[in-house]
Amino acid sequence: MEHAATASDEHLLHCVALPWYKGVFVGAVGGFLTLFLVAFQPFGVSNHDPNFQIDLPFLVYMLGAGLAVTLALAVSEFVLRPALLPAPRRPQLLGWLAWDYLLAGTVAYLYYNYLGDWHDFSWASYLRFLPDIALVISFPVAAFIFYLRHQAVVARLVHLTSAAPQHTLPEMLHLSADNDREVFTVASGDLLYLESQDNYVTVVYLQQGRRQTRLLRSSLKRLEAMLPAICRRCHRSFVVNLAQVRACHGNQHGLKLHFAGGDETVPVSRAYAGPILAALGNPAVPTTGTGAS
Q1: pTM for this structure?
Q2: Of the candidates 88, 182, 271, 272, which lies 20 to 30 Å from 252 by C-alpha distance?
Q3: How far apart are CA 165 and CA 257, in angstroms?
Q4: For residue 268, with 0-12 CB atoms within 10 Å meaning exposed, 13-18 middle and 19 or more buried, which class applies?
């Protein structure tokens, strides 16, 4: 689980240092603030006039507020942060985000008072204004962070899809039922997964490229012990052959594995998500599953 989280964090840290992502962040905050001011006229920008009508001068003033905040954040992200934090980690980025909030609020407050002949310029007014402006710009900031996390997950899944684990497998696998008289033999490269069903286990495999099943009377735990290490428990009801996993989608709370030879998926429970992701992304990492048999 630590390996998967670290990979996502590294991708996120890489993205926030790229000029394109900085530009999106700065533009999103400034653009959203402009639209919010025009649409809702908060902070008394319409002088609380019930008959107020949006006109060209008002649009220009509100655009000026958005541009002022955009320019301030651009200096912060493109000039100050590279100079002061050339290789930031997550705690430092969170601190810098707090600084960006303070900077945006301060610039908006100064612009607001400049337009109003400094009629509301005081520490008390400033401290009341900051939380309000922070709440407004939290919407684009939250959307930007969500987008970055989504990009990190997508990059992680692409990595998993292209980094199929390489293992030496025995040529044939021999799975015996509880009575040891019934033995099912399958080529290791054809085995997809095993699914527990009460007192039986369904063995799902490929035969000439077509999905086939075989039912054995046994516990999943017993058959799991007969399989090589590349076959891992991913759920209390499933053991999968990781060599046959072609892609995985979702996150650690809703991961699904996709196999060769069909569109079906196998779920990965939360308890096994970390070990499965680690095994797929870095086969050298030793992992052990946890959970009920």
Answers
A1: 0.55
A2: 88
A3: 14
A4: buried
Task: Catalogue the long-range contacts made by 253-259 (C-beta closer than 8 Å, 24 or more residues apart).
Answer: 259/192, 259/193
All domains of the chain in start order, with CATH: 2-162 (no CATH), 172-281 (2.40.50.1020)
pLDDT attached to residue 154: 54
Find tokens 């969500």 and name the residue.
146
Distance CA 31, CA 246 (A): 41
Mean pLDDT by groups of 10 residues along the chain of 293 residues: 46 68 92 93 79 90 95 95 86 91 95 89 94 94 82 54 50 87 88 93 90 93 92 94 84 77 83 85 41 40
Residue 194 near residue 203 (C-beta atoms within 8 A) = yes
Per the DSSP assignment, residues forming a β-bridge with 53 are: none
Cα separation, 24 vs 77, whole angstroms: 11
- Give the pLDDT confidence score for residue 96 in this predicted structure: 93
Measured between alpha carbons, how far is 239 from 194 in angstroms, rounded to an integer?
A: 5
